[in-house]
Amino acid sequence: MTAITQTTYNVTCKICASIANALKETLRAIIVGRQMSANVQVARELQQLGFYGRDQDLRHIIMQLNDKTAKEYEKRS
């Protein structure tokens, strides 16, 4: 390879890596967001089924589920 070809390859490789990282982060954010919204539905159903007391705040249940989800995704990264 000539010096110009090598330089061009290095620049385009960095650009592709940057784009790939941005797409990975975007996909990860979408996945986490969908899981957080699923946690809301799960919390409602758990409360209705009696796994949590009727007097326990729904927001507290959702927060617990979201904390568990966040910890799980932090382990994977």
Model description:
With 77 residues, this protein is mainly α. The chain has one domain. The chain has helices at residues 3-49, 58-76. 1% of the residues are buried. The model has no long low-confidence stretch (mean pLDDT 84).
Mean pLDDT: 84
* Helical proportion, percent range: over 70%
Strand content: under 5%
Care to count the β-strands? 0
Helix segment count? 2
Rounded to the nearest angstrom, the distance between the terminal CA atoms is: 37 Å
Largest sheet: none
Supply the helix-strand structural class.
mainly alpha
The tally of domains stands at 1
Low-confidence runs (pLDDT<50, min 5 residues)?
none
Helix and strand element order: HH
Ordered list of secondary-structure elements with their pairings:
Blueprint: H1 3-49, H2 58-76
Helix pairs in contact: 1-2
Write a brief structural summary.
With 77 residues, this protein is mostly helical. The chain has helices spanning 3-49, 58-76. Helix 1 packs antiparallel against helix 2 (58-76).
Keywords:
single chain, 77 residues, mainly alpha, 2 helices, 86% helix, rod-shaped
